Structure formats: C-alpha cells, structure tokens
Amino acid sequence: xxxxxxxxxxxxxxxxxxxxxxxxxxxxxxxxxxxxxxxxxxxxxxxxxxxxxxxxxxxxxxxxxxxxxxxxxxxxxxxxxxxxxxxxxxxxxxxxxxxxxxxxxxxxxxxxxxxxxxxxxxxxxxxxxxxxxxxxxxxxxxxxxxxxxxxxxxxxxxxxxxxxxxxxxxxxxxxxxxxxxxxxxxxxxxxxxxxxxxxxxxxxxxxxxxxxxxxxxxxxxxxxxxxxxxxxxxxxxxxxxxxxxxxxxx
Length: 250
Ligand SMILES: Nc1ncnc2c1ncn2[C@@H]1O[C@H](COP(=O)(O)OP(=O)(O)OP(=O)(O)O)[C@@H](O)[C@H]1O
What we know:
alpha/beta; Rossmann fold; 6-stranded mixed sheet; 7 helices; about 30% helix; binds adenosine-5'-triphosphate; transport; transmembrane transporter activity; MacB-like_ATP-bd; ATP binding
C-alpha cells in the first residue's frame, strides 16, 4: 500500500471523478442524560463517484457513526453533509427517508434478513419501497445467487446470506453502497467472495462502495484508504495498484 499521500484525492479526481458526497467539518457528540460522548471531531471528507473507499480504524473510533451520518441514519451535531449539492443537514425526516431509499444501499455485518422470507422475497421487500428498482431476480443474479432464490436464510451459508443482503441493497439501484464490516462474521475464503462481489459491483456497474472495517487487510483492494483515529481522519493513502479481492488475506 502506498504511504500516506496528501495528494490522494487530486490524483483520483484526475480520473475525472466528481464528488458524490462531501462531509464538511462534521462533529458528533452523543448525549444521554448528563453524559456526553464526543465521537467525531471536525471531519472533512469527499467521497468520489465510482470510487472504492475503505475506512479503517479500531473499535470505538467512530467508523459506524461516520457511516451512519453518510447514510442518513444518524445526523451530525455540527457540520454539513452535501449529497449532489443538497445539504442533508437541512433535510426533514421525510427527506432523509427518501434520500436513504433512493440513494443508499446498506450492507451490515449480520445480514439482517427476514428468516421467514425466501432470498427473493427478502429482495422484493426492498424493491417494493423503491421508486425505480431493478428486477429482484437480476439483483440475485448479480451476486451469483439466481439458483438459490427460493431458499430461506436458514438454508443458506453465512456468505450466501450476505450475498442476499447485498442483492437487497442493490435492487434499489443506489448510487452508494455503504458496508459496515461486511466480512466480519465470515471466514477468509467466504469473506473474499463477498469482497469480490463488492469489487465487481464497483468496477462493472460503477457503484461507489464504502467499506468500514477494523480489518486493515481489506484496505489493500481499495483505491483509497482512510484511517480513523479518535474521531478524526488520521491518515489518507491511495493504492496505485489495488489487489484483487481473491488475494486479500488476513
Ligand atoms: N447511540 C449512542 N449513544 C452513546 N454513545 C454512542 C452511541 N453510538 C455510539 N456511541 C459511542 O461512540 C463511540 C464510537 O462508536 P462507533 O460505533 O461509531 O465506533 P466504531 O469505530 O464503529 O466501533 P466498532 O468497530 O466497535 O463498531 C463509542 O465510544 C460508542 O460507545
């Protein structure tokens, strides 16, 4: 991996990528009763359209908080989030819901599939609340699970369940796929397959993919890696030659 490179962003922008989303001086403090927990401090970050970005950092450093703010699940205490020139910080709840539905696909560590629905039905649930979804069968095809569409989650391995979860995220045709420890519950070989699927969606469909993880090995397949420490961006680096997912090892 390249050493820290403050020119990382311009060099990626030279590939004529526009800024999809901008965090401007984002701070977040959780307040519960008398207790304040400051988590993010003046974070500035541009996410470029079509990039594969990995955000790494130790447990408790604020990665999920950051991802949730990007995805409109949570709001910052101060600062602004611009998505295609719109300021999310000024959105009503209803506007945030529409933003999430139309633009963001979420993938979590523990799949969160409905156990009583088949793979296809799990994907259909997401398609049904989307304005312009792709066909659920096409989404399953894209993750290599067309032949398991009628299987229930309990009949699928962890990696297959995660692929259903990716199909569910994808069916809405989101601009941005936000993945929170997508391989965290999987062994190396299954985890690589998930990373391969995410890499293909980035390369072949042009999806912008952001992965947050404590596993810095995953950064080797990213175009850009951001290291979070104590609620700030401690380091940004670019990979001139990201490695293929099947060579990532941990
Ligand atoms: N709703 C909340 N209320 C209060 N504190 C919170 C809340 N959510 C997160 N925190 C605290 O914010 C800090 C950052 O949490 P966050 O989940 O963003 O970190 P993380 O880097 O994603 O950690 P992990 O890798 O363990 O998931 C932690 O100290 C956590 O306890």
